[in-house]
Design brief:
The protein has 411 residues and is an alpha/beta fold. The chain is built from 15 helices and 13 strands. The chain has a seven-stranded mixed β-sheet with strand order 2-8-7-6-5-3-4, sandwiched between helices. A four-stranded antiparallel β-sheet has the order 9-10-13-12, covered by helices on one side. The chain has a two-stranded parallel ribbon with strand order 1-11. The model has no long low-confidence stretch (mean pLDDT 97).
Length: 411
């Protein structure tokens, strides 16, 4: 596997040549990444040339529709799903609420669903509210010290009444990568649908959805170098079974029944720019680009990004492990976690530490990051929460060094 050409990758992000961002090291990528140039170019072009109702019988409208279709086709290819299994929406939170309503009609009083206290509230709260309809909600709880989920604990929660299991691919606080395929196999054996929140995982490389065998997989394109859209994949047979959430006359259109409002045409079209960027990365690093199908391209790009991130993560975790005045939330082994590292400061309030980082032009935040239940379960006050340091493949070794020096000065 080749090593990421960092200069080539960064050349695709206008943020790195933006004067107002000069000298800032960005460590709040888990809240939203920089947008890559192809996305910005496509969004600008759409508003300039094709900002009309798409799919109409005139050139600008036809072009708008084709650009939206292109985004669906190319992102589906990278995720290894069929085109009609990919659905856009305004955000992952809203997509999940729509899904919960779609499930409500097929669930009966006494049916059981399993949620976790490791999730961002988006993949927890919507499902928990089904208790108002008589659905039994069971909680798969983290270990309070490590913040990790033990798949063995799931065995005691699953039953013949379990209809759905919702959990994160990766926590936005503890960063541990859950074994999705293993968990999905357990849930499917019990006859349950598997819903995976991939918001904190997908920025580090798109997953192969077929390999994970997730029935539903959700993530946010604005955290994967794209526009502010949510994306979800839903297995076709499941989507056909779910209750229509759109206009009654669209119930037979599988791409409209889970999208109650009109989609953001421009942002959907612009999301094809993510595939442009991934294609550029692939073809720059691999010589056989034209002969490789999109799913394999996705797996290669994933490995490329992951390798770079693991290299950057190791020295940061080494530094944090040596300090006695902080607690690393989650594992300290870079092999089993994403580069989203939250810490609980012991001697100085986290807001003071983040203010010190700001003086060194380190962009980071303090919060519970909508993982309120997780932070509380690990014995940390959700307000103010934890200091989170999150990065992606375009982060440089020099920025990691700057972060470590700034931490030394601020703690």
């Amino acid at each position: 596997m080749p090593q990421l050409d960092l200069a080539f990758a960064r050349s695709h992000f206008p943020a790195f040549s933006e004067p107002s961002l000069k000298d800032w090291a960005f460590f709040e990528n888990a809240g939203g990444s920089y947008a890559c140039g192809p996305v910005i170019d496509r969004l600008t072009r759409f508003y300039r040339e094709t900002k009309v109702q798409p799919y109409g019988p005139f050139p600008a409208s036809e072009k708008a529709g084709k650009e939206m279709d292109e985004a669906r086709t190319r992102l589906a290819g990278y995720l290894n799903v069929a085109e009609d299994e990919l659905h856009f929406g305004p955000s992952t939170t809203q997509n999940t609420y729509v899904l919960a309503q779609a499930f409500r009609g097929s669930l009966q009083e006494g049916d059981e669903i399993i949620v976790t206290n490791q999730d961002h509230e988006a993949n927890s709260g919507a499902w928990r509210r089904l208790a108002d309809s008589g659905i039994v909600v069971r909680e798969w709880q983290v270990d309070p010290e490590s913040g990790q989920l033990d798949p063995a604990d799931l065995d005691d929660l699953l039953s013949e009444k379990t209809r759905l299991v919702a959990f994160p691919h990766c926590s936005n606080i503890v960063g541990h990568v859950n074994p999705v395929a293993e968990i999905a196999a357990k849930a499917h054996a019990a006859g349950a649908v598997v819903v995976v929140d991939g918001v904190s995982y997908a920025p580090h490389g798109f997953p192969d959805i077929q390999a994970l065998d997730a029935d539903i997989y959700l993530f946010s394109l604005y955290k994967t170098y794209g526009p502010h859209q949510g994306l979800m994949t839903v297995k076709r047979a499941l989507a056909e079974h779910l209750e229509n959430q759109g206009h009654f006359f669209n119930a037979g259109n599988i791409l409209k029944k889970l999208t109650p409002a009109g989609p953001d045409h421009a942002q959907i079209a612009a999301s094809a720019g993510i595939a442009d960027y991934f294609d550029a990365l692939h073809d720059h690093h691999f010589a056989d680009g034209d002969d490789i199908d999109p799913a394999e391209r996705g797996r290669r790009v994933h490995a490329l990004l992951e390798g770079q991130e693991k290299t950057l993560l190791a020295p940061l975790l080494d530094y944090l492990r040596q300090r006695n005045d902080i607690r690393i939330m989650g594992p300290s082994d870079p092999a089993v976690r994403a580069p989203t590292v939250a810490i609980h400061t012991k001697n100085k309030p986290a807001p003071e530490v983040v203010e010190g980082l700001r003086k060194h032009r380190i962009a980071a935040c303090v919060s519970n990051f909508y993982a309120y239940r997780l932070v509380e379960a690990m014995g940390v006050a959700p307000d103010p929460g934890v200091l989170r340091l999150s990065f992606v493949h375009y982060t440089s070794p020099e920025e990691i060094d700057r972060l470590i020096k700034a931490m030394d000065a601020s703690l």
